[in-house]
Amino acid sequence: MTRIVAGAAGGRTLRVPPGAGTRPTSDRVREALFSRLEALDVVDGARVLDLYAGSGALGLEAVSRGAASAVLVESARAAAAVARANAAALGLPEVRVVADRVERYLAAASPAGFDLVFADPPYPLGEQDLAAVLAALAPALAPRALVVVERSSRSPEPTWPAGWEVEDSRRYGETALWSAGPS
Question: Among residues 6, 29, 60, 114, which is most buried (max CB within 10 A)?
Answer without folding.
Answer: 60
